[in-house]
Amino acid sequence: MPRKSRQSRAKRETGTFRIEARLIIVAIIAMVGFAGWVWLEGHPEHNPMAPLDLRDPIGMATARKIAVLKDDVTACHAALERSEVAYTVLPPLADASGEGACARPDRTQLDSFPMGPTNPSVTCPVATAMVMWKAKSVVPAAKEIMGSNIARIEHLGTYNCRRMRGSGSSGWSQHATANAIDIAAFVLEDGTRISVLNDWDGGDAKSQFLRRVRDDACGVFATVLSPDFNAAHADHFHFDQSARWSGVCR
Ligand SMILES: [Zn+2]
Fold it and tell me: Which of 93, 145, 183, 212 has a CA between 20 and 30 Å from the CA of residue 176?
């Protein structure tokens, strides 16, 4: 065969090989994409597009899906309804700061949540996260680690019209709109009391329980502060739904 003809045949074969290789790559990408889509369909907790259902496990997309509800209270209440969670909407409260910082347009109260000493109203995203945290973390952790059921979750407060460091020019606390809750202790059905102040450092089952529910809270709240964060949180967990991406989990 003449040299020129051999060269052009080799060129044609190389071109065909390149096209086939590209087709194989495209087919692989399509298959991986399809497999990913099928997987996400079965795991709505990891799927940012799936509607939030509080009965789903806590997943990679959960905290983000709850955080965006801050700007859409109607959608937040719809998520509670979709998840068959009973709640009451309390009348809005006017601003107490004089600077517009402490108005409370969203006061959502969960109808049957084992909270003490009172059943407070909070923003809907905080209520939503509390429901999920209790069902997917606190209850199973109490059963697995403590061998009992949760009777009551004790809080230190939700609403407090104040700045972050008490006064001065620091930013307003998430408590100024009840977009936060401070959790101090857990009481089990067998009477056992687990408090952040007394049991955080015990190294025993109570300590293990507290650390697990703290870690899990990071999957549903934008900010989680515990005794690991600073001495001001030695006796409680602070949970809030401030801007997700500047949130702390410690
Ligand atoms: Zn707090």
Answer: 212
Instruction: Over range 102-106, report the average pLDDT.
Output: 94
Domain ranges of the chain: 1-42, 49-246
Residue that has been written with the tokens 């945290």 in this structure? 133
Give the closest residue to 66 by CA, choosing from 218, 177, 173, 190.
218
pLDDT at 3 exceeding the cut of 80: no
Tokens 């104040």 found at:
162
Question: How many Å lie between the centroid of ligand 1 and the Cα of residue 108?
Answer: 18
Q: How far is the CA of 248 from the centre of ligand 1 (A)?
A: 13
Say what the pTM is.
Answer: 0.87
Distance (angstroms) between ligand 1 centre and the Cα of 238 equals 4
Of 126, 110, 114, nearest to 185 by C-alpha is: 114
Mean pLDDT, rounded, of the chain: 91
What spacing in Å lies between the alpha carbon of 79 and ligand 1's midpoint?
25
Centroid of ligand 1 to alpha carbon of 202 (angstroms): 23
How far, in Å, from the CA of 180 to the mean position of ligand 1? 6
